[in-house]
Amino acid sequence: MDTFLQQLANGLTIGSMFALVALGYTMVYGVMRLINFAHGDMVAASAFVGLTIYTQVMGQATSLVAVVAIFLLTAVAMAIVGIILERVAYRPLREAPRLSAVVSALGASLVIQNGIMLIWGPRMRIFPELVPQVYWDFGGVVISMIQVIILVLSLVLMVALYLFVEKTRIGAAIRASSIDQDAARLMGINVNSVIALIFIIGSSLGAVGGLFIGLYYRGITFNMGWQYGLYAFIAAILGGIGNIPGAMLGGMLLGLFNAFIAGYVSSTWADAFTFILLILILIVRPTGILGERVAEKV
Amino acid sequence: MKELQKFAYPVFFVVMAVLPHMLDDRWQAVAITFLIFSVVALSQDIILGKSGMFNMGQALFFGMGAYTTAILSNEYGWSIIATIPLAIIIPALFGILLAGPIVHLRGDYLLVVTIGFNIVFVQVLQNNLGGVTGGPNGIFGLDSLSFLGYDLMSQISVYYFAFIVLLLTLWVMHNLAGSKPGRAMHYLREDQLAAESIGINTRVYKIFAFGLGAGIAGLAGTVFAVQYSAVSPEAFEFIQSVLFFSIVLVGGSSVPGVLLGVFVMFVLPEIFREFATWRYFIFGFAMIAAMIMRPRGIWPATFGKIPKFLIKENNHGA
Prior knowledge:
The structure holds 2 protein chains of 2 kinds. Chain A is mainly alpha-helical. A two-stranded antiparallel ribbon of chain A has the order 1-4. In chain A, a hairpin with a 2-residue loop joins strand 2 and strand 3. The longest helix of chain A has 31 residues. By secondary structure, chain B is mostly helical. Chain B has a domain of 218 residues. Chain B is built from 12 helices and 4 strands, in the order αααααβββααααβααα. Chain B starts with a helix and ends in a 25-residue tail after the last helix.
């Protein structure tokens, strides 16, 4: 029972990081029908940007104000990178065949990943201890303060995003663009702005996810983007890609699944089991758990 | 264009046939790598370029062929030549079995599932399932190539082995283009619904494409195992599949385009060694630029003998 509760806590923590990153994938896919392969590398980059802001700008301060400032500055920096990415790599290919955009996304991923390597070097870097190492012991189940912060902050961000998309006028524009870009344009929605906004939101949520990854795992490497990005993308697909609550559900499910595999089976098989789960779910529900059955465009 | 091809292909074959005698050891190895990866990229082209299925797991079949040869040769003492039939059949069977339940998936889902297959495969190798894959280190110390009692130790004979495999692949692809399955695959890539409505069993041909592409990649795997006389899991990581995927699309799914893609991706970095750390950074930009300037690839494929006035410009694979 202790293992179960412990892995439940770990799983929810990992799951909320997956979910934050998955939101970036799912929102871009929802509007542009494009797998933004560069998103995982943006997440990795944000951990490094956060590290540099901590050492260069904040002078290694770990006060609450400094930590909040690191999060905000990293999110702003990554939002700017996200806008540049969309302008350079995706906008010129909006009308091109689908696969061309996929290759462009892969190219962007290589550029960002190797850009990190050229700037920060190929070796693993240690992310600073921004949050004090406080642990609570609940009868054998140990929960750290980092875990609580990750879980609570992720939930707050996800609920805020959900309300923003569902309840505001701008959110309605996002939803309209994801249903039909041409019709949305006819209704007076500036689809270009919507897409830019989606990259801003997705990249800043990914930045928070990247900082969480740094805080939780401590070791950050230039090529970790593929690993976390792939998991987050699987989370988005599990929940039904293009669907915002789906990404949150998928992320949490995947995190729990991973934690239980690591706890009860073996972590060397975690990737294999995750993909087998994905394949089984796609065979039963080809559009994911919350995905709607959409007719293929002819 | 047709005239150029009539002229260019024999020149290419002659140059490739005499090439190893003009190169030193290091460049012979580079040339062999070029040949092997060309075969894998062409096999990927059958699935991705010709049939339009988003397959991002081609390194799986490549690796399966290589491991089949390595295991049969090392564990069971088969000669390399004798392992070739199984190194084709086993990946082809796996291609068919794996593709069966997933070919109905929409493009991007198919892509993720094939990535998944690739990752599961590498994890199986690393965890040494069945105790025959050698774990993370792989299998090394393979026998050299021998045929009818002759020991073909030298690198030049490996080169010609690889060259023959490339010629075979080109021959298969040439015949495929004019055959019934080839036409069916082309139609289902252009428009699946239309293909179905004129009576093409799309499911059968999709699985056929996977089987054929997997078999050819498996054969390339045998050559790979012979060249390095070793196999290890990291040679078949899914990042390799990403490279093959990109080569086909940047090249444009034609034979010259794919060969050009392989050359740029695997031979140029050998020539410009000093740029080794910048390699992928530059490739990334090149991929974006190539797609923006030529969305259908640098050297797009043409199909059959359709008169010019009948060809309507449209978005392939949209």
